Amino acid sequence: MFLDYVKIFIKAGDGGSGAVSFLREKYVPNGGPDGGDGGNGGSVVFVADKDITTLAEFKFKKHFRAQNGMPGEGRNRTGKSGDDLVIKVPVGTVIKETSSGTVIADLFEDGERFCALTGGRGGKGNARFAHARRQAPGFSQLGEKTEQHQVTLELKTIADVGLVGFPNVGKSTLLSVLTSAKPKIANYHFTTINPNLGVVQMFDDSFVIADIPGLIEGAAEGAGLGHYFLRHIERVRLIVHIVDASGSEGRDPYDDYLKIRAELAAYSEKLAATPEIVVASKTDLCENPEEAVEYLRKKTGKEVYAVSSVARIGLDELLKVIKQKVEELPPPSRTVIEEGATLEEKADQKFTVTRYPDGTFEVEGGLVDFLSRNVTISSRDSFAYFQKVLKERGVIDELKKQGMKEGDTVVIADIEFEWVD
Question: Are 257 and 296 in contact (CB under 8 A)?
């Protein structure tokens, strides 16, 4: 099964919570707190693998979660960190944030790695909160929770040359005689239903040719199979545009040429600007091959190379031209990734205060997320720390500025309390 476009859900592992523990041993009268830190959660890492050619693995499995970190333990033992989740994808896979369509990675080379999500940090054990004035803290820090994200995986074939044209014009046959590829070949439309790759070896040089499944009029809007495979032409350095010079399907070859050019332009201006050579195929079926080729030269205004894959006519000249063009052109380029594009929001300690009509005040923002991990309401020490942070970060001043008075209700994360001045 060939699959080149999927949407999946990924989630990094949560961090383990810190432990609350006190050393109690015989002959150790003042053991003190010894709660260890929680382990970090595992990260989600994508790796490009040349041995994988499709995204079929993701057809039925849609949810991928890294391992959570283990909680800390007494005797200052840190919890085990969660294992990273490694997801292997084909070379040429582009990863996008689904809702916005923002490209966050382009795995362009074999073995290339991309850390999409970092595991949550483990919480600190109570031993970390001990100091001269607070010698026996009865609280610890919770592990950092991570969010699930949906990403789109889109496979774009990486090849030097792309063969395009209407169905049944001879693309697969040409690929089979120019390279060692063995595509399915038959005399009916859409014989090829997925891109086929072949390698041409000429002396010490080589280049890759991709046979793109047949395009038809309206492909850019979703007609036929071309809509699904136009993305595979985006990376090619040279387009080899094949037309049936014999008109064996009852169509005018120049009309075919114009329609395919229109589809490339409708899909992408960049694709339409890709260097192109025109190949007149099936010349062995023409009553007057020279006249058919000359007709295409005049109409397109371009050099046209006449070939017959079956009769092995014109193949050597075509290979030389393709090789020369490829050598002159810059190598395939990566998809442009916006600066700072990431799935993870940068942590901040900002906050906003909202006053509701019923007189309730709510504090939201990065500072609240930070406090929710660090505060245990049932612990007097922890709650004292909570109050100290609110005062130091200006939250209390902002609440008073917006009219908070004694007896008003304040909500911060899951904590709801009545203000007492």
Answer: yes
Question: Phi and psi for 46 in degrees, rounded to 5?
Answer: -95, 140
Extract the runs of DSSP E, i.e. beta strands, from 245-389: 276-281, 304-306, 352-355, 361-364
315-347 confidence digits (pLDDT tens): 999 999 999 999 999 887 788 787 777 887 665
φ, ψ dihedrals at 396, nearest 5°: -60, -45
Q: Buried (b) or exposed (e) across 272-286, using 16+ Cβ within 10 A?
A: eebebbbbbbbbbbb
Contacts for 57 with CB less than 8 Å, ≥ 6 apart: 88
Q: Long-range contact list for 293-297, CB < 8 A, 24+ apart?
A: 293/245, 295/253, 295/254, 296/243, 296/245, 296/253, 296/254, 296/257
* Tally of CB atoms within 10 A around 211: 30
Closest CA to 157 of 226, 242, 228, 90: 90
Query: Dihedrals φ, ψ of 232, to 5°?
Result: -75, -10
Q: Residue 127 and residue 19: Cα distance in Å, rounded?
A: 9
Q: What is the mean pLDDT of residues 86-102?
A: 93
- Rounded-to-integer distance, Cα 386 and Cα 111, Å: 46
Length of the chain: 421
pLDDT tens string 242-289: 999 988 778 899 999 998 898 888 888 888 899 999 999 988 888 888
For residue 226, the 8-state DSSP code is H
What is d(CA 283, CA 253) in angstroms, rounded to the nearest whole number?
12
Contacting residues for 182 by C-beta, under 8 A, at least 6 apart: 176
Cβ-based burial of 106 (10 A; exposed 0-12, middle 13-18, buried ≥19): buried
- Cross-strand partners of 45: 86, 115
Q: Residue 377 — left, alpha, or beta (φ > 0 → left; ψ -120 to 50 → alpha)?
A: alpha
Tokens of 145: 């929770």
Strand partners for 418: 409
List CB contacts of 242: < 8 A, sequence separation 6 or more: 163, 164, 165, 169, 170, 171, 174, 279, 281
DSSP, collapsed to helix, strand or coil, labels residue 147 as coil
CB 4 within 8 A of CB 231: yes
Of all residues in the chain, the percent with pLDDT exceeding 70 is: 88
Check if the beta carbon of residue 273 is closer than 8 Å to that of residue 239. Answer: no
